[in-house]
Amino acid sequence: MSGPRMGMSQMNGNNRRPPNISRMGSNDKPIHAQHDDLIKYIYDSWSKVEMDRGSNSVRYYQDEGAHHLKDFKPFDLEEYWGRRLHQSVQQQHS
C-alpha cells in the first residue's frame, strides 16, 4: 500500500488552484486565428523578399570604415589569462 500522494499545491505550500488555462486567453483571438495571422505575415514577408531578390537592381553595402578605430587592436582575453597563469606558475616554482 502506498502513502498519501502529494499534489503540486501541497508540495509548494500553495493552497490555491492552478489557473484555468481556458480562461487565460478569453479576451484574445483563438489560437488558430493567431496562428493563421502569423503564417500569413511570414508568407507575405517572404514573398516580398523573393520579389526583391528577383529584381535586376544591384544592391551592395560598402563599409567606409570607422576612422576613429583605425589603430584599434582587439584585446585577446584568453592570451592575457594564459600569460597570467604562466607567470603565476613561474613565480611559485622560483
TrEMBL record:
<dbReference type="InterPro" id="IPR029428">
    <property type="entry name" value="MCRIP"/>
</dbReference>
<dbReference type="GO" id="GO:0010494">
    <property type="term" value="C:cytoplasmic stress granule"/>
</dbReference>
<protein>
    <submittedName>
        <fullName>Uncharacterized protein</fullName>
    </submittedName>
</protein>
<dbReference type="Pfam" id="PF14799">
    <property type="entry name" value="FAM195"/>
</dbReference>
<keyword id="KW-0539">Nucleus</keyword>
<keyword id="KW-0963">Cytoplasm</keyword>
<comment type="similarity">
    <text>Belongs to the MCRIP family.</text>
</comment>
<feature type="region of interest" description="Disordered">
    <location>
        <begin position="1"/>
        <end position="31"/>
    </location>
</feature>
<dbReference type="GO" id="GO:0005634">
    <property type="term" value="C:nucleus"/>
</dbReference>
